[in-house]
Amino acid sequence: MFVQVIQGQVTDAEQAHAAMDRWMEELAPEATGWLGTTAGVTADGRFIALARFESADAARRNSESAAQDKWWHEFSALLSNGATFRDTEDVTPGMFGDPDAAGFVQVIRGRASNPARVRELMQMDPADWVAFRPEVIGSIFSLFDDGRFATTFYFTSEAAARDGERKEPPAELKALVDELDSLDAEPPEFFDLTSPWLYSPAST
């Protein structure tokens, strides 16, 4: 899987949402190899999108189309300071339900002091986590070349996610969380998407 993370400060969330809906209606049917997009705007106007493709080649072919170029030119006008892009094929998905049914999405962006160890921890058997946090219906861990990462969690609802955050994990899971926290090379940035925009080929 290939993931592209796009980030920027949006000037009008409703217009951005309408533009994403238009992409889904007009461009998605021709986007060969596109697996889905998770996007949204935080309460303070930060836009983030994670576009998933079968491969980097599929993403490149999509970006090179004239229709995509035109759409992006119009969409980027809604970003006050342009956009940043990060691409990777170092992706660890974990799907325990239907992420397209998520009522709340949280994206955590940061940088790892030991990327290989973080990847190893994220690839561990999720059965204990699923039992402990049943409101988590999916996750995608994307690791970039410079040690930066984006972890996306899909929840049934924000209320359920907040309730889950307050639960005390069993010792084994707490040790895992503590180790992950110790591998943060800088404070992580959180994107809480209370009204996530979820797109997939199944909804075209």
Automatic annotation (TrEMBL):
InterPro entries noted in UniProt: Dimeric_a/b-barrel (IPR011008)
Name this polypeptide is given: Antibiotic biosynthesis monooxygenase
Source organism per UniProt: Kribbella rubisoli
